[in-house]
Amino acid sequence: MMFFQSIALALSTLFSTTQYDNMSIVRVRIENQEQLILLQNHGARSLACFDHTGPTPMIFDETLIELAQKMQIDFEIVEPDINRYLAEFEEKRVRARNRGLGGWYSDFKTWDQVNTRLHQIELFNPDVATIFTVGTTHEGRTIQGIRITAPGDATNRRQVLWNGCQHAREWVAVMVPMYIIEEIVAGWNEDAEIQSLLETTEIIVVPIVNPDGYEYTYAVGGDRFWRKNRRDNPDFCEGVDLNRNWGYDWNGGDSTSTNMCSDVYVGPSAFSEPEVQAMRDLVNSLPNLVAHIDFHSYSQLVLEPWASSNNPPPRENIVKTLSGEISEEIFSVHGETYVAGTGGDLLYLADGVFPDWTTSNGALSYTVELRPDGSPGFDLPPEEILPTCEENFAGAMAMFRFVNQLLVISLPNGPPVFALPGDMVSISVVIEPIFDDQVNENSATLHVRYGNDGPFAIRALQHKSGTNYEAMLPVSLCGLESEYWFSVETENGEMYRYPEGNDTLKVGVATELYSWNMDSNPGWTTLGQWEWGIPTGDGGEFGYPDPSSGATGLQVYGYNLQGDYQNNLQQKHLTTNVLDVAGTQGTKLQFSRYLNVEQPVYDHASIAIRADGGGNWITLWSNPATIEDNAWQQVVYDISEVVQGAQTIQIRWTMGETDGAWRYSGWNIDDVQIMTTSSSGISGDANCDGVVDVTDILEIVSYWGSCEGVCAQDIVPDGTINVSDLLHVIGNW
Ligand code: 0X9
Ligand code: ZN
Q1: pLDDT tens per residue across span 224-283
Q2: pLDDT at 219
Q3: Is there an atom of ligand 1 within 6 Å of 244 CB?
C-alpha cells in the first residue's frame, strides 16, 4: 500500500495533471490537406507529425472530437484519457526500475543521468573514449558528445556519427546511442573485430542533441509530448523543430511550417538554432565523415535519403545495400522488422532534416526510427528499452563494418530463382567502390559448379559499363542445380565476394508441377467476392484500381473484379483444389500479383498453405504494410518446408479482415505455378545416364576442347572440356 501511495505522490509531482485533462489520443485518417489544417487550427497536435494523408496519431480534446464527428473525419480513439495513460506509464517505469532487469537500461534516463554515465564511461576507458562539448543550448545546457577510437594519430581515420534525440519526446532515441557507446567501449577491451575497426575508424556519438527539450519532457509543468527545442519565440508558442532547421532544402514545404506553434516549425532561418549550429560545426570539423545515423522514434524504419524528395540519392545502390544490411542485422537480434526504404515511400517527405544535410556533405546518412512500430509510441514499455538497444547496436555495427569495406557487389535484379536444363542465365552484377578505392575490373569472376561437390569453375564476368557487369551462369543438362558466387579484387589485391562469408547462391533446375495461366477457369473454391474472370480496371478509392486484364491473357482470379473490397469484411478465401505433391523437393509457389490493400492495422491480405488436409493453415505471407501495385509483378514463395513429407497440399489467398473505412482494390492473381527445383543428377555424370563411369570419360575425350554455351561434357563448367572434367569424373567414379 505504502509503495503505491508513494508512486502516486511521485507522479502527481512529476506531471501536471491539468495539462492533458479531458484529452485523448486518437488515430485520424486525414484525407486531405484541408482537414489537416482545420484540425490543427482547432489545436489538434500530431503525435507523429504525419503531414500527409494517412492515419495520424493526434491529441484531441472534446471539442475536436465533436468537430471531427461533425466534419465526418474518420478517427478512432486509442487512449481515451491521456493523464491516466501517462500515469500508468510512470507506474510502469517505477516497476521496471525496481525490478532493474536491464541494469541502467531498465528505465529511461534524464539529461543529468546521461551525463553522469558518459563521464563514468570516459573515466574507465580513458585510452579510447573522450568526452567533448558540442555546444550550448538556448537555456545554457551543454550538448555532450563522445569520441571513440583506438589510441594514436586519428587524423586519417574514417569517421562515423551517431546521434539521438533531436526530438525531445523520443526517449528511447537517447538510450540507444548510450548503449552503442558502452558496447563499443566494452568491445575495445574484449572483441577483436571492434578493436581492429577502432584502429581505422573514429566513432562520434551525441546521445542528446536537444537537452532543453528533453529536460522539458521530464519537468514538472513540462510536457511529455514536447518535440521541439525551447527557443523563446516572440509569440506565445515556444520551440523550433531541430529536424526542420537544417540548411538542406530548409523550409521547403514538405512537412514544414512557418507557424511558430507548429510542431514542425522551421525556425526564423536555416541553422538559426544553437543546437543545430553546434552539430553543424561538429560535422564540419569531421573531414572524414563517411556515415551517419540520426536516431528517432518511432515506427521501426531505416530511412534512406533523400527525406526532402523522391530523387535517388548519390550512390543509391550503396545507400540501399547498407540500409538493407542494417535492417537485417537488427532483425537478427530479436526478430523485429525495421523496414528499409525512403521517407517518401514509407513515411512522408520532410525538408531541412539532418541526414539530408550530411548526405549533401557526402556521407551515407540515415534516419533510424526505433521501436515501437505503431502508435501511441513515445512511451515505449521500459522492458523494451534494452532489446531496442541491443538490436540497434547490431544495426550500428553493420554500418561500422561497412565503412571499412572497400566495395559492394550486388545483384540489382536479384538472383534467378528458376532455370531450365542447358540454360545460360544472364545475371546483372553491380560492383561499386564504396569510397574512392579502385576496382580491378578484370578480376570480376563467377565461381560455379553443378551440384554441391567438386571444384568451382571460374568464368570471367563481362564488364558492360561503369559499375555494371554481366555474368553468364551455366545450368547443367543433367538436372543438377548450379551453385555459384562472385568475387572481385581491388587494385591492391584485396578480395571481396558475394554472398559474404562462405555463403553461395543456388539456382535449381525447374520442373513445373502445376500451372494455371487462368485463361480457363481452374474451378477453385471461392468465398465472398472472389471470382474468376476479366478484371474491369475499376475501384481504387485508395491505392490503384484493379488491372483491366491478366498478367498474361485476359482472365484472373480476383477479389471483386469490378472494384474495391468492402469495409468490415470477414476473411474470404480463394482455395485451390487438393494438389498432389508427394515426393517433390525444393518446391516453390510462383504467381503474378496485382494487389492493393491498406496497411495491416486496418486491412489484411494473406496467403496460406496446409498439408494433407489438416486444419492448420500456415501463413506464407501477409501484407506487412500498405501495398499499392500498379503493375503486375511476379512473386515467389518457398513452400518446400511444408511440402516436405506431405502427400497433398492446398493453397489459399485471403482477403480480409478489413476495417470500417478506406477501400482498396484488393487481390488479383494470375499465372500461378508450383515448381519444384530438382537436384536429382549425379555430379560427374557427363552423359546424364545416371552413373559415373567409363562412358563419361569417353564422352569427354571425344568432345575435348572449348565449349560454346552449355555442354554436357563440361562438368566443371569453365567453358572448356579438358582435364578438369576428367579429374572430376574420376573423383566421383
Ligand atoms: O519527421 C521527422 O523529423 C522524423 N520522424 S519523427 O516521427 N521522429 O519526427 C523523420 C525524418 C526523416 N524523414 C524522412 N526521411 N522523410
Ligand atoms: Zn523524431
Answers
A1: 999 999 999 998 899 999 999 999 999 999 999 999 999 999 999 999 999 999 999 999
A2: 95
A3: no
Is there an atom of ligand 1 within 6 Å of 353 CB? yes
The ligand that comes nearest to the alpha carbon of residue 299 is 1
Q: 712, 721 in Cβ contact below 8 A?
A: no
Q: What is the CA radius of gyration of the chain?
A: 29
Strands 158-164 and 201-206, bridge-based pairing:
parallel
The pLDDT of residue 174 is above 50: yes
Which residues are 648's β-sheet partners? 580
User: For residue 70, what pLDDT is reported?
Assistant: 94
Q: Which three cell numbers stand for residue 72?
A: 465526418
Q: Which residues contact 69 (CB under 8 A, 6 or more apart)?
A: none
Question: Ligand 2 centroid vs 296 CA: distance in angstroms?
Answer: 4
Amino acid at position 139, single letter = E
Residue pLDDT, tens place only, 409-445: 999 888 988 888 899 999 999 999 998 778 999 999 9
Euclidean distance between CA atoms 315 and 62, whole angstroms: 49
Residue 209: alpha-carbon gap to chain centroid: 25
β-bridge mates for residue 146, sequence order: 131, 205
623: burial class by Cβ within 10 Å (0-12, 13-18, 19+)? middle
What type of residue is 572?
K
Mean pLDDT of the chain: 92
Distance CA 324, CA 330 (A): 10
Domains and CATH numbers, the chain: 2-87 (3.30.70.340), 100-402 (3.40.630.10), 408-506 (2.60.40), 517-678 (2.60.120.200), 694-731 (no CATH)
Return the pLDDT at 9: 41
Distances (CA, A) of 483 to 309, 380, 449, 452, 716: 40, 45, 5, 7, 12
Q: Which residues contact 425 (CB under 8 A, 6 or more apart)?
A: 416, 419, 472, 473, 475, 507
Which of 166, 225, 347, 357, when mutated, tests ligand 1's pocket best, judged by the most ligand atoms within 8 Å of its CB?
347
Among all ligands shown, which has an atom nearest to the Cα of 323? 1
Residues 6+ apart with CB under 8 A from 111: 141, 208, 211, 214, 215, 218
pLDDT tier at 678, thresholds 50, 70, 90: low
User: How far apart (Å, rounded) are the C-alpha atoms in residues 262 and 353?
Assistant: 16
Contact 594, 562 (CB under 8 A): no
Task: Check: pTM over 0.85? Answer yes or no.
Answer: no
Question: What pLDDT sits at residue 5?
Answer: 41
pLDDT in tens, 40-75: 889 898 887 654 445 788 999 999 999 999 999 989
